[in-house]
Amino acid sequence: MYFQVPFLQLGRLFSYFGKSASPEAATSTDLFGGTEPWFGTNVSWTDVDDRVRGGSSMSYLKPVDNTTSVRFYGYLDTKTLGGAGFASQATRGDQAWDLSKWDAIQLAVSKADDKTYTFILKDEIPDTQREDGREQSSISWEYDFKLNTGNTSVAETQKITIPWNQLKATYRGRERKDVDPIKTGKILRFSIMARSFFEKQDGNFDIVLDSISAIKL
């Protein structure tokens, strides 16, 4: 004995099991590192150090051999500018990132010193430039972080999760609270910075970033 199953019902049966076996929606996407390059045709990184203001700090962002990681390192000087100082690397190019379907940024770090670093996003860039060719100042969205280590390396990769509402709006280094929320649908710049926090830290700095990702919480 056997049962005849109408063709339409059979199709629905296969459709049901096909849906149950489909993969779950992605919970993260790599932006730099991991499956995505740090340097490409549409985006590059460049130094934005206090030398633009007459300081002496220097920063570099270099690939780590045989990995998809990069090393952000340099020297933070506080004497030239009387206690102030910063050294950073920022993306350059015309690429815009639509991160509106994600809830947070996540940094994966496999090596760090005991310095405090600042991760920065920009969602607007003025069309006009300064007379010296530099970009005009605009709102930055910042998050300070420090690795849980007191030496020059960590035993395993540590992840720093940064929800959108944890980013602090600043303008020329000063916090601004009278601004609209960050426009996650059009992120135009990524930056990583070492700053003096007015003579709280200086000297050599060194951190290895494995990836920058957008994630769901």
Shape assignment: globular
Helix content: under 10%
Strand order of the largest sheet: 2-5-12-7-8-10-11
Query: What about the largest sheet?
Result: 7 strands, antiparallel
Class by SSE composition: mainly beta
What is this structure, in a nutshell?
The chain has one helix at residues 7-20; strands spanning 28-33, 44-47, 58-63, 70-76, 86-92, 104-112, 117-122, 140-145, 158-163, 168-171, 174-175, 189-195, 203-215.
Question: Descriptors for this entry?
Answer:
217 residues, 6% helix, six-stranded antiparallel sheet, mainly beta
What would you say this structure looks like, in words?
By secondary structure, this protein is mainly beta. The protein contains one helix and 13 strands. It has one helix spanning 7-20, and strands spanning 28-33, 44-47, 58-63, 70-76, 86-92, 104-112, 117-122, 140-145, 158-163, 168-171, 174-175, 189-195, 203-215. The strands form two sheets. It has a seven-stranded antiparallel beta sheet with strand order 2-5-12-7-8-10-11, with no helix packed on it. Strands 1, 3, 4, 6, 9 and 13 form a six-stranded antiparallel beta sheet that branches. Strand 3 (58-63) and strand 4 (70-76) form a beta hairpin. The longest helix has 14 residues, at 7-20. The radius of gyration is 22 Å and the shape is globular. The termini are far apart.
